[in-house]
């Protein structure tokens, strides 16, 4: 059986979980779930990094001792992940006795082999970074991270002979193209390695810092926090001879952001080499989330906490947004407007609409049971199947190489193709003619199959939506039992299985308050005097089918529609904030057909589309079952 092991950085316990931590951990969760769907045996590790100066300082500020403080923040991380549907197998803390033993074991081993030596070092030390800097690493004489001048310090310490492994590391990176990816970060490490590598100071005198793991060969010192922390990736799985270590090492994918490239790209592989085991398989490096185009900053209040967003927007919407919006490796921007936009267009309009209309038609035309295919497939059926196959293939290629956004784009191409397929096949017309029963079966079945493929492919990204979709599509299996190669095969839905409609997957997020402020909508019905039946009958209400729909340039609200009501009419409708144009094509609407023509944003309108509006949602009025275009409403 194939193995897959994924890790996040272990997070410092000096800050609460924010969107940056959530992103790395969700990426790891998506990869883990994806490999499970492929039938791999998987292991997913995250945790907290709890030693060192930074933590002592944060604990002091909080008026707590380091251990109680670490217990508190570590618990916040541990409790956050299940709330984001993150299913890690292990949560490691560097204060766990098992981890501390492994760190000491490795230190002893490397010391015994002669790669750790004692020496006096005089240099420029940055307290914030807890490390010495070389002159050339400073920017204008200051630490580049803290913008502070380092202090001169002389200290006797232990050093790891990192320089000895420089040539080996260059060779290893050059002969393994996927060792560090994307390529820009591989190149960054290689260019760093063009300069001679210095040995790494791996101890701190206890008189200055007591909060750390004592060196096994000299207890006047504790271990430098990075030498301690990196070892979590093997201590958690039972290095050196535990069954999990034997099973999962070295097929590990480390996921980190660019801030910690150097310790992971240089210290860690050389430490591994010195300790005498196989290097990790890949280091995967992503960019930074910015908030409204700026750096995330606690002091400016620009910190996005996932648990604030999820109750407002929904968990799967949040996960989808992060995975769709960031190109792995590059920076991305977070804003609530962009999140709402994605929810309303990709999730409510595209995916939600496809799923609800498919199930509604299965209920209406086939009593809620999956119809068998008719005997012959038409070109459009084969085209939809090809879209589903393409989405599957793209996901299989792109997800393992971190192309999450590309996988999602391809899945959404399939969703949009399925919506268009329904519009063009117009099942509501087929249903009117008993001679078309076989064709109607095929159309609904193809739409159901597309929904099923989509449900499986989004499962790693949006586990609870996928579960809901598969259940309503009649799936009887627990989620863990699904396999992409068997279950995403076109035609694999069982004939006759009952499906259930349920509520909307993604309700639209209405920005009602803002709109109300602008005076554009009002929940209060206009006050009207009673009208006579004769007056009412003067209004010519007709049913029409939307043939074309498009946005009117420069307007957020107005759409230009061509409506077939026996004859074709151009109508301008102010529903663009509530419907995407594609969503309307094929829908039946009710028109005020004898309204005096008017020009809106320069476009002539010959009628008015009726819609219901309760101050939050706006929905067009449609006959309960399709009727012939031009039918009178009275
Ligand atoms: N404790 C070390 C890691 C030790 S791993 C052996 C550490 N901790 S941290 O709490 O600072 O976490 C850094 C990681 O958090 C980044 O590498 C990234 O995974 C995540 N992020 C923190 N801020 C981020 C953004 N603004 N954007 C994206 N991810 C970010 O470094």
The fraction of residues assigned to DSSP E strands is 15-25%
Amino- and carboxy-terminal Cα gap? 67 Å
For CATH, the homologous superfamily of the largest domain is named as HUPs
- Structural class designation: alpha/beta
Quantity of strands, as a count: 25
Task: Count helical runs.
Answer: 22
Adjacency order of strands in the biggest sheet: 3-2-1-12-13-7
Largest sheet: 6 strands, parallel
CATH class of the largest domain: Alpha Beta
Looking at the overall shape, the CATH architecture of the largest domain is: 3-Layer(aba) Sandwich
What average pLDDT do the residues reach? 92
Low-confidence stretches: 512-528
Helix content: 40-55%
Which topology of the largest domain does CATH recognise? Answer: Rossmann fold
What is the 3D form? elongated
Q: Can you put this structure into words, describing what you see?
A:
This protein is α/β, with parallel strands linked by helices. The chain has 3 domains: 3-286, HUPs (Rossmann fold, 3-Layer(aba) Sandwich); 333-487, Orthogonal Bundle (Isoleucyl-tRNA Synthetase, Domain 1); 533-620, OB fold (Dihydrolipoamide Acetyltransferase, E2P), CATH 2.40.50. Helix content is 41%, strand content 19%. Residues 512-528 have low confidence and may be disordered. It binds 5'-O-[(L-methionyl)-sulphamoyl]adenosine. Residues 9-12, 20-21, 23-24, 49, 229-230, 232, 256-257, 259-260, 288-289, 296 line the site of 5'-O-[(L-methionyl)-sulphamoyl]adenosine. Residues 9-12, 20-21, 23-24, 49, 229-230, 232, 256-257, 259-260, 288-289, 296 line the site of 5'-O-[(L-methionyl)-sulphamoyl]adenosine (MSP).
């Amino acid at each position: 059986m194939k193995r897959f092991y994924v890790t996040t950085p272990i997070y410092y316990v000096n800050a609460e979980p924010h969107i940056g931590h959530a992103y790395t951990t969700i990426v790891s969760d998506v990869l883990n779930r994806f490999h499970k769907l492929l039938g791999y045996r998987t292991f997913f590790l995250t945790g907290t990094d709890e030693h060192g100066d930074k933590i002592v300082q944060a604990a002091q500020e909080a008026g707590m001792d380091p251990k109680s403080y670490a217990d508190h923040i570590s618990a916040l991380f541990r409790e956050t992940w299940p709330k984001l549907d993150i299913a890690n197998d292990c949560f490691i803390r560097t204060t766990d006795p098992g981890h501390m033993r492994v760190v000491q074991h490795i230190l002893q081993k490397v010391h015994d082999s002669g790669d750790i030596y004692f020496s006096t070092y005089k240099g420029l030390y940055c307290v914030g970074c807890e490390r010495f800097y070389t002159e050339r690493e400073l920017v204008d004489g200051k630490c580049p991270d803290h913008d502070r001048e380092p202090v001169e310090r002389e200290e006797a310490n232990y050093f790891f002979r990192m320089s000895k492994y420089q040539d080996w590391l260059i060779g290893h990176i050059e002969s393994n193209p996927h060792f560090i990816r994307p390529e820009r970060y591989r190149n960054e490490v290689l260019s760093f390695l063009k300069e001679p590598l210095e040995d790494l100071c791996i101890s701190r005198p206890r008189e200055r810092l007591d909060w750390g793991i004592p060196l096994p060969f000299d207890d006047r010192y504790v271990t430098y926090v990075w030498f301690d922390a990196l070892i979590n990736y093997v201590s958690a799985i039972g290095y050196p001879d535990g069954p999990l270590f034997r099973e999962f090492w070295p097929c590990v994918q480390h996921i980190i952001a660019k801030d910690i490239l150097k310790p992971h790209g240089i210290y860690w592989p050389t430490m591994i080499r010195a300790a005498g085991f196989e290097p990790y398989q890949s280091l995967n490096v992503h960019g930074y989330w910015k908030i409204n185009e700026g750096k995330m900053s606690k002091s400016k209040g620009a910190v996005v906490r996932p648990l604030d967003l999820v109750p407002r927007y929904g968990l799967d919407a949040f996960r989808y947004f992060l995975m769709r919006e960031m190109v792995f490796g590059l920076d991305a921007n977070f804003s609530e407007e962009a999140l709402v936009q994605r929810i309303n267009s990709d999730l409510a309009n595209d995916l939600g609409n496809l799923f609800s209309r498919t199930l509604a038609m299965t209920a209406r035309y086939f009593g809620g049971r999956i119809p068998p295919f008719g005997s012959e497939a038409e070109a459009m059926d084969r085209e939809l199947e090809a879209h589903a196959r393409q989405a599957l293939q793209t996901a299989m290629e792109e997800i393992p190489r971190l192309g999450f956004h590309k996988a999602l784009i391809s899945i959404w191409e399939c969703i949009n193709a399925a919506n268009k397929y329904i519009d063009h096949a117009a099942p509501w017309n087929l249903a009117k003619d008993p001679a078309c029963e076989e064709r109607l079966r095929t159309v609904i079945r193809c739409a159901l199959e597309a929904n099923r493929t989509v449900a499986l492919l989004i499962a790693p990204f949006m586990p609870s939506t996928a579960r809901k979709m598969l259940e309503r599509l009649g799936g009887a299996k627990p989620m863990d039992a699904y396999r992409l190669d068997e279950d995403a095969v076109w035609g694999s839905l069982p004939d006759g299985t009952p499906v259930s409609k349920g509520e909307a997957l993604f309700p639209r997020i209405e920005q009602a308050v803002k709109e109300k402020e602008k005076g554009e909508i009002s929940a209060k019905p206009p006050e009207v005097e009673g009208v006579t039946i004769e007056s009412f009958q003067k209004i010519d209400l007709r049913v029409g089918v939307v043939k074309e729909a498009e946005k009117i340039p420069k307007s957020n609200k107005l759409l230009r529609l061509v409506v077939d009501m026996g004859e074709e009419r151009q109508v301008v409708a102010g529903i663009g904030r509530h419907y995407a144009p594609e969503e309307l094509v094929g829908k039946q609407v009710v028109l005020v057909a004898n309204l005096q023509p008017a020009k809106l944003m320069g476009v002539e309108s010959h009628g008015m589309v009726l819609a219901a509006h309760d101050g939050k949602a706006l929905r067009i009025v449609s006959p309960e079952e399709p009727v012939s275009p031009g039918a009178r409403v009275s």
